[in-house]
Specification:
- Two copies of one chain form a homodimer.
- The mean pLDDT of chain A is 87.
- The first copy, chain A, has helices spanning 6-12, 17-26, 44-58, 63-72, 79-112.
- The first copy, chain A, has 134 residues and is mostly helical.
- Chain B binds a DNA duplex (30 and 30 nucleotides) through residues 5-7, 16-19, 21-22, 26, 35, 37-40, 57, 62-64.
Chain lengths: 134, 134
DNA sequence: GTTGACTCTGTATCTAGGTACAGACTTTAT
DNA sequence: ATAAAGTCTGTACCTAGATACAGAGTCAAC
Protein backbone atom coordinates (compact mmCIF):
# COMPACT_ATOMS: atom_id res chain seq x y z
CA UNK A 1 0.00 0.00 0.00
CA UNK A 2 1.12 3.54 -0.78
CA UNK A 3 1.57 5.67 2.33
CA UNK A 4 0.80 5.10 5.97
CA UNK A 5 -2.28 3.69 7.61
CA UNK A 6 -3.81 5.59 10.48
CA UNK A 7 -2.31 3.23 13.03
CA UNK A 8 1.13 3.68 11.50
CA UNK A 9 0.93 7.43 11.59
CA UNK A 10 -0.44 7.37 15.11
CA UNK A 11 2.36 5.13 16.20
CA UNK A 12 5.07 7.23 14.53
CA UNK A 13 3.77 10.37 16.13
CA UNK A 14 3.28 8.67 19.50
CA UNK A 15 -0.37 9.55 19.61
CA UNK A 16 -3.66 7.71 19.84
CA UNK A 17 -5.50 6.71 16.66
CA UNK A 18 -8.63 8.42 17.88
CA UNK A 19 -6.67 11.59 18.42
CA UNK A 20 -5.55 11.59 14.81
CA UNK A 21 -9.16 11.57 13.70
CA UNK A 22 -9.95 14.15 16.34
CA UNK A 23 -7.27 16.49 14.94
CA UNK A 24 -8.71 16.03 11.50
CA UNK A 25 -12.12 16.99 12.77
CA UNK A 26 -10.61 20.06 14.46
CA UNK A 27 -8.93 21.04 11.20
CA UNK A 28 -5.43 20.68 12.64
CA UNK A 29 -4.45 18.24 9.94
CA UNK A 30 -5.92 18.16 6.45
CA UNK A 31 -8.25 15.38 5.38
CA UNK A 32 -5.98 12.75 3.86
CA UNK A 33 -6.83 10.90 0.66
CA UNK A 34 -8.72 7.63 1.02
CA UNK A 35 -8.55 4.20 -0.49
CA UNK A 36 -11.40 2.78 -2.55
CA UNK A 37 -13.01 1.53 0.59
CA UNK A 38 -12.59 4.72 2.55
CA UNK A 39 -9.41 4.03 4.53
CA UNK A 40 -7.28 7.07 5.24
CA UNK A 41 -3.81 7.17 3.63
CA UNK A 42 -1.17 9.40 5.17
CA UNK A 43 2.22 10.68 4.10
CA UNK A 44 5.20 11.32 6.38
CA UNK A 45 4.37 15.01 6.51
CA UNK A 46 1.39 14.18 8.65
CA UNK A 47 3.69 12.72 11.26
CA UNK A 48 5.73 15.92 11.37
CA UNK A 49 2.63 17.99 11.62
CA UNK A 50 1.25 15.99 14.49
CA UNK A 51 4.57 16.11 16.32
CA UNK A 52 4.56 19.85 15.88
CA UNK A 53 1.10 20.05 17.36
CA UNK A 54 2.08 18.00 20.41
CA UNK A 55 5.21 20.01 20.98
CA UNK A 56 3.45 23.34 20.62
CA UNK A 57 0.98 22.14 23.21
CA UNK A 58 3.76 21.38 25.62
CA UNK A 59 4.95 24.92 25.08
CA UNK A 60 1.63 26.21 26.33
CA UNK A 61 -0.31 26.84 23.13
CA UNK A 62 -3.92 25.79 22.83
CA UNK A 63 -5.20 23.83 19.85
CA UNK A 64 -6.91 26.93 18.57
CA UNK A 65 -3.68 28.92 18.71
CA UNK A 66 -1.83 26.09 17.01
CA UNK A 67 -4.43 26.06 14.30
CA UNK A 68 -3.79 29.76 13.70
CA UNK A 69 -0.04 29.18 13.55
CA UNK A 70 -0.44 26.39 11.03
CA UNK A 71 -2.89 28.31 8.90
CA UNK A 72 -0.80 31.45 8.69
CA UNK A 73 2.33 29.49 7.84
CA UNK A 74 0.58 27.80 4.97
CA UNK A 75 0.59 30.86 2.83
CA UNK A 76 -2.00 32.61 0.78
CA UNK A 77 -2.51 35.39 3.29
CA UNK A 78 -2.35 39.10 2.95
CA UNK A 79 1.02 40.53 3.97
CA UNK A 80 -0.49 42.95 6.46
CA UNK A 81 -2.29 40.17 8.29
CA UNK A 82 0.79 37.99 8.38
CA UNK A 83 2.87 40.84 9.81
CA UNK A 84 0.37 41.62 12.53
CA UNK A 85 -0.14 38.03 13.49
CA UNK A 86 3.52 37.09 13.55
CA UNK A 87 4.40 40.22 15.49
CA UNK A 88 1.97 39.32 18.25
CA UNK A 89 3.04 35.72 18.40
CA UNK A 90 6.71 36.63 18.41
CA UNK A 91 6.17 38.95 21.38
CA UNK A 92 4.35 36.22 23.18
CA UNK A 93 7.15 33.79 22.49
CA UNK A 94 9.75 36.28 23.72
CA UNK A 95 7.87 36.64 27.01
CA UNK A 96 7.72 32.92 27.37
CA UNK A 97 11.42 32.57 26.75
CA UNK A 98 12.20 35.33 29.24
CA UNK A 99 10.14 33.71 31.93
CA UNK A 100 11.60 30.30 31.23
CA UNK A 101 15.07 31.81 31.58
CA UNK A 102 14.15 33.30 34.95
CA UNK A 103 12.83 29.95 36.02
CA UNK A 104 15.94 28.19 34.80
CA UNK A 105 18.24 30.61 36.61
CA UNK A 106 16.33 30.19 39.83
CA UNK A 107 16.54 26.44 39.60
CA UNK A 108 20.23 26.74 38.80
CA UNK A 109 20.84 28.86 41.88
CA UNK A 110 18.72 26.54 43.94
CA UNK A 111 20.85 23.65 42.81
CA UNK A 112 24.18 25.42 43.25
CA UNK A 113 23.47 26.76 46.71
CA UNK A 114 21.91 23.61 47.96
CA UNK A 115 23.57 22.66 51.24
CA UNK A 116 24.83 19.23 52.09
CA UNK A 117 22.64 16.18 52.62
CA UNK A 118 20.34 16.28 55.58
CA UNK A 119 20.79 19.99 56.01
CA UNK A 120 17.56 21.78 55.19
CA UNK A 121 18.24 24.16 52.29
CA UNK A 122 17.55 27.80 52.98
CA UNK A 123 14.46 29.41 51.60
CA UNK A 124 14.87 29.86 47.88
CA UNK A 125 11.49 30.65 46.43
CA UNK A 126 11.24 30.12 42.71
CA UNK A 127 8.47 32.63 42.51
CA UNK A 128 10.83 35.50 41.84
CA UNK A 129 9.99 37.87 39.05
CA UNK A 130 7.65 35.63 37.14
CA UNK A 131 4.83 37.60 38.67
CA UNK A 132 5.02 40.99 37.05
CA UNK A 133 4.73 40.33 33.36
CA UNK A 134 1.84 40.57 31.00
CA UNK B 1 -8.27 44.27 59.04
CA UNK B 2 -4.74 42.89 58.80
CA UNK B 3 -4.00 41.38 55.39
CA UNK B 4 -6.11 40.66 52.35
CA UNK B 5 -9.52 39.07 52.06
CA UNK B 6 -9.99 36.28 49.56
CA UNK B 7 -11.69 38.57 47.09
CA UNK B 8 -8.83 41.06 47.31
CA UNK B 9 -6.21 38.43 46.70
CA UNK B 10 -8.25 36.95 43.85
CA UNK B 11 -8.61 40.34 42.30
CA UNK B 12 -4.93 41.21 42.63
CA UNK B 13 -3.90 37.94 41.05
CA UNK B 14 -6.58 38.21 38.35
CA UNK B 15 -8.10 34.93 39.30
CA UNK B 16 -11.48 33.64 40.44
CA UNK B 17 -12.24 33.41 44.17
CA UNK B 18 -13.23 29.79 43.79
CA UNK B 19 -9.94 29.09 42.11
CA UNK B 20 -8.07 30.45 45.11
CA UNK B 21 -9.83 27.94 47.34
CA UNK B 22 -9.28 25.29 44.71
CA UNK B 23 -5.52 25.93 44.74
CA UNK B 24 -5.56 25.66 48.51
CA UNK B 25 -7.29 22.29 48.24
CA UNK B 26 -4.70 21.17 45.68
CA UNK B 27 -1.91 22.24 48.02
CA UNK B 28 -0.57 24.86 45.62
CA UNK B 29 -0.91 27.58 48.20
CA UNK B 30 -0.66 27.04 51.94
CA UNK B 31 -3.70 27.29 54.15
CA UNK B 32 -3.81 30.90 55.24
CA UNK B 33 -4.59 31.96 58.81
CA UNK B 34 -8.20 32.66 59.64
CA UNK B 35 -10.12 35.29 61.54
CA UNK B 36 -12.14 34.45 64.64
CA UNK B 37 -15.08 33.62 62.45
CA UNK B 38 -13.15 31.55 59.96
CA UNK B 39 -12.45 34.04 57.19
CA UNK B 40 -9.18 33.49 55.31
CA UNK B 41 -6.54 36.21 55.68
CA UNK B 42 -3.87 36.51 53.01
CA UNK B 43 -0.56 38.32 52.70
CA UNK B 44 0.90 39.77 49.52
CA UNK B 45 3.06 36.72 49.07
CA UNK B 46 -0.02 34.75 48.18
CA UNK B 47 -0.61 37.03 45.23
CA UNK B 48 2.91 36.44 43.96
CA UNK B 49 2.53 32.75 44.38
CA UNK B 50 -0.71 32.63 42.47
CA UNK B 51 0.73 34.75 39.68
CA UNK B 52 3.62 32.37 39.48
CA UNK B 53 1.25 29.45 39.19
CA UNK B 54 -0.71 31.08 36.38
CA UNK B 55 2.41 31.99 34.49
CA UNK B 56 3.97 28.57 34.86
CA UNK B 57 0.77 27.14 33.46
CA UNK B 58 1.03 29.37 30.42
CA UNK B 59 4.52 28.00 29.93
CA UNK B 60 3.09 24.53 29.68
CA UNK B 61 3.51 23.14 33.17
CA UNK B 62 0.70 21.19 34.80
CA UNK B 63 -0.51 21.96 38.30
CA UNK B 64 1.21 18.83 39.55
CA UNK B 65 4.52 19.91 38.06
CA UNK B 66 4.10 23.37 39.50
CA UNK B 67 3.42 21.84 42.88
CA UNK B 68 6.72 19.98 42.64
CA UNK B 69 8.55 23.16 41.67
CA UNK B 70 7.08 25.05 44.60
CA UNK B 71 7.75 22.27 47.07
CA UNK B 72 11.36 21.82 46.09
CA UNK B 73 12.04 25.53 46.20
CA UNK B 74 10.69 25.76 49.70
CA UNK B 75 13.68 24.12 51.24
CA UNK B 76 14.10 21.35 53.71
CA UNK B 77 15.06 18.82 51.07
CA UNK B 78 18.03 16.58 50.77
CA UNK B 79 20.71 18.05 48.49
CA UNK B 80 20.82 14.98 46.29
CA UNK B 81 17.12 15.13 45.59
CA UNK B 82 17.25 18.83 44.85
CA UNK B 83 20.12 18.34 42.40
CA UNK B 84 18.37 15.58 40.54
CA UNK B 85 15.07 17.35 40.38
CA UNK B 86 16.48 20.68 39.28
CA UNK B 87 18.70 19.01 36.68
CA UNK B 88 15.71 17.37 35.05
CA UNK B 89 13.61 20.49 35.12
CA UNK B 90 16.42 22.62 33.77
CA UNK B 91 16.88 20.28 30.81
CA UNK B 92 13.18 20.44 30.16
CA UNK B 93 13.24 24.21 30.27
CA UNK B 94 16.21 24.34 27.89
CA UNK B 95 14.33 22.22 25.39
CA UNK B 96 11.34 24.45 25.66
CA UNK B 97 13.44 27.54 25.09
CA UNK B 98 15.15 25.95 22.08
CA UNK B 99 11.86 25.05 20.49
CA UNK B 100 10.40 28.45 21.18
CA UNK B 101 13.44 30.00 19.51
CA UNK B 102 12.91 27.82 16.44
CA UNK B 103 9.31 28.85 16.38
CA UNK B 104 10.21 32.49 16.77
CA UNK B 105 12.76 32.34 13.95
CA UNK B 106 10.29 30.69 11.65
CA UNK B 107 7.70 33.32 12.36
CA UNK B 108 10.33 35.99 11.84
CA UNK B 109 11.26 34.59 8.45
CA UNK B 110 7.63 34.23 7.58
CA UNK B 111 7.10 37.87 8.38
CA UNK B 112 10.24 39.10 6.61
CA UNK B 113 9.69 37.18 3.42
CA UNK B 114 6.04 37.89 3.23
CA UNK B 115 5.26 39.24 -0.23
CA UNK B 116 3.11 42.24 -0.95
CA UNK B 117 -0.63 42.46 -0.26
CA UNK B 118 -2.78 40.15 -2.28
CA UNK B 119 0.12 38.00 -3.34
CA UNK B 120 -0.11 34.58 -1.75
CA UNK B 121 2.97 34.05 0.40
CA UNK B 122 5.10 31.09 -0.53
CA UNK B 123 4.92 27.94 1.53
CA UNK B 124 6.68 28.53 4.82
CA UNK B 125 5.74 25.72 7.13
CA UNK B 126 6.36 26.45 10.76
CA UNK B 127 6.64 22.79 11.43
CA UNK B 128 10.36 22.76 10.81
CA UNK B 129 12.55 21.08 13.34
CA UNK B 130 10.10 21.11 16.22
CA UNK B 131 9.41 17.49 15.45
CA UNK B 132 12.57 15.69 16.40
CA UNK B 133 12.93 16.46 20.09
CA UNK B 134 12.32 14.24 23.05
C1' DG C 1 -13.43 -19.12 3.46
C1' DT C 2 -12.88 -18.25 8.09
C1' DT C 3 -10.40 -15.99 11.90
C1' DG C 4 -8.13 -12.08 13.75
C1' DA C 5 -6.38 -7.47 13.20
C1' DC C 6 -7.71 -2.82 11.08
C1' DT C 7 -10.67 0.71 9.90
C1' DC C 8 -14.96 3.29 9.45
C1' DT C 9 -18.66 6.62 11.66
C1' DG C 10 -21.02 8.22 15.49
C1' DT C 11 -21.81 8.75 20.23
C1' DA C 12 -20.49 8.47 24.96
C1' DT C 13 -17.14 8.89 28.53
C1' DC C 14 -12.96 10.60 30.90
C1' DT C 15 -9.37 13.94 33.02
C1' DA C 16 -7.55 18.38 34.25
C1' DG C 17 -8.56 22.59 35.66
C1' DG C 18 -11.90 25.52 36.82
C1' DT C 19 -16.61 27.72 37.95
C1' DA C 20 -21.12 27.99 39.80
C1' DC C 21 -24.53 27.43 42.90
C1' DA C 22 -27.16 26.57 47.57
C1' DG C 23 -27.87 27.49 52.11
C1' DA C 24 -26.04 29.53 56.24
C1' DC C 25 -23.23 32.96 58.61
C1' DT C 26 -20.65 37.61 59.03
C1' DT C 27 -19.45 42.29 58.06
C1' DT C 28 -20.32 46.91 56.30
C1' DA C 29 -22.82 50.76 55.08
C1' DT C 30 -26.77 53.28 55.51
C1' DA D 1 -31.16 47.36 62.82
C1' DT D 2 -31.66 46.05 58.45
C1' DA D 3 -30.17 45.48 53.70
C1' DA D 4 -26.35 44.53 50.76
C1' DA D 5 -22.11 42.49 50.09
C1' DG D 6 -18.68 39.15 51.43
C1' DT D 7 -17.43 34.55 53.11
C1' DC D 8 -17.93 29.74 54.52
C1' DT D 9 -18.42 24.48 53.12
C1' DG D 10 -20.00 21.22 50.07
C1' DT D 11 -21.61 19.55 45.83
C1' DA D 12 -22.70 20.03 41.06
C1' DC D 13 -21.54 21.53 36.63
C1' DC D 14 -18.52 23.19 32.75
C1' DT D 15 -14.77 23.37 28.95
C1' DA D 16 -10.77 21.65 26.43
C1' DG D 17 -8.64 17.92 24.91
C1' DA D 18 -8.56 13.37 24.47
C1' DT D 19 -10.26 8.36 24.62
C1' DA D 20 -13.38 4.54 24.53
C1' DC D 21 -16.81 1.81 22.65
C1' DA D 22 -20.50 -0.11 19.58
C1' DG D 23 -21.74 -2.01 15.39
C1' DA D 24 -20.48 -2.75 10.66
C1' DG D 25 -17.37 -3.32 6.97
C1' DT D 26 -12.42 -4.73 5.18
C1' DC D 27 -7.91 -6.83 4.73
C1' DA D 28 -4.33 -10.49 5.39
C1' DA D 29 -2.95 -14.97 6.46
C1' DC D 30 -3.46 -19.42 6.72
Amino acid sequence: MEGLSISKVANEAAINIETVRYYEKRGLIPEPPRTEKGYRIYSGEYVDRIRFIKRAQELGFTLDEILQLLRISEGGHDAQIVKEFTYEKIQEIIWKIDDLLLMKNTLQKLSDECPGPGVPSSKCPIIQDLTNHK
